[in-house]
Write a structure and sequence with these properties.
Elements: H1 5-9, E1 13-21, E2 29-31, E3 46-55, E4 70-74, H2 85-104, E5 108-118, E6 139-140, H3 146-155, H4 159-162, E7 167-175, E8 185-188, E9 198-204, E10 209-215, E11 223-225, E12 233-241, E13 252-254, E14 268-277
Parallel strand pairs: 2-9, 3-11
Antiparallel strand pairs: 1-3, 4-12, 5-14, 6-10, 7-12, 7-14, 8-11, 8-13, 9-10
The structure holds N-oxalylglycine and fe (iii) ion (FE).
The site of N-oxalylglycine has 11 residues, from strand 7, strand 13 and strand 14.
């Protein structure tokens, strides 16, 4: 099922380098904070691969969260300043909750987190004094274990009852300033990924350990992006689904578009993470 290869292969595309994970014996681990001197931040070794990344716009109407694990939607926010935390919570969170409820048909949607990324040339992600940077390795934010764990951590006494029904974690990603040319987001068609391509990886914070998926290379992977993405567009990404008969996890990563001129404005983006609860 899904989109046929001859449709995809006629789409405009670019070639980009994506960093997969070299298969390893130990469980991969990343520190979410600046390690003390002499301590490695990660034990994983990146395996760069050149892949074809297709323009998703011409097929946007045919991509779905449950099918390919992503949706590309037009959505105009009324937020004036995405750097105003107060306005984000007051205006953007409810707008995004309504959007995700509409797209998924869920009975309840809760934004639980946001990340603003602003590229600084030479900047290191999660380094003190530097804004969060585009993510340069292929990953999915949650695993079979950490998806439900997030519900337990955030929903208190309601968690048990909520976990008896279908729930999802869906990210809402958009440029803060467009058109976005620097470090766009590539998202992998979930129907082209085998479950065995995902490798559970510890994400170690000072006070807790989360689990994400890193991804092993598989030539079957089919990648999409939205060229020159506008602020009135959003990509929705399925990062977890308790239902097992549809897209459950969706690999994604930033990449350098080789056709982008050198002097474009650095990437500024915002992503929200949402818990999506279904009544059934
Ligand atoms: C995400 C994500 C990476 C980026 O939204 O979950 O991984 O570079 N974003 O924006
Ligand atoms: Fe992510």
């Amino acid at each position: 099922m899904g989109l046929s290869s001859d449709v995809i292969e006629r789409l405009p595309h670019v070639e980009g380098i994506l960093n997969y994970l070299v298969p390893m014996a130990d469980k991969p681990m990343n520190l979410a904070y600046d390690p003390p001197p002499g301590v490695a931040r990660s034990n994983g070794i990146p395996e760069p691969h050149r892949v074809t990344i297709y323009d998703a716009r011409p097929v946007a109407g045919r991509l779905s969260l449950d099918g390919e694990g992503l949706a590309v939607v037009e959505h105009r926010s009324t937020v004036e300043d995405f750097y105003d935390e107060d306005e984000l919570r007051r205006v953007y969170y409810p707008e995004a909750e309504r959007l995700v409820a509409e797209v998924t048909g869920a009975s309840r949607v809760l934004v639980f987190d946001h990340t603003i990324r602003r590229r600084v040339m030479g900047g290191v992600d999660r380094a003190p004094g530097t804004p969060r940077q585009p993510v340069t390795s292929v990953h999915n934010d949650y695993t079979v274990k950490s998806g439900p764990q997030r519900v337990r951590d955030l929903m208190g006494e309601e968690a048990d009852e909520l976990l008896r029904h279908r729930f999802e974690i869906v990210n809402v990603w958009r440029p803060i300033r467009g058109p976005l040319r620097d470090a766009p987001l590539a998202v992998c068609d979930a129907t082209s990924v085998a479950f065995t391509d995902f490798v559970a990886s510890d994400l170690v914070y000072r006070d807790r350990t989360g689990e994400t998926y890193r991804v092993k290379y598989n030539p079957a992977h089919r990648w999409f992006y939205v060229p020159e993405m506008r602020v009135d567009e959003a990509i929705l990404i399925k990062c977890y689904d308790s239902a097992q008969d549809r897209a459950r996890f969706t690999a994604h990563s930033a990449f350098e578009d080789p056709t982008t001129p050198k002097d474009v404005l650095p990437r500024e983006s915002i992503e929200l993470r949402t818990l999506v609860f279904h009544a059934a």
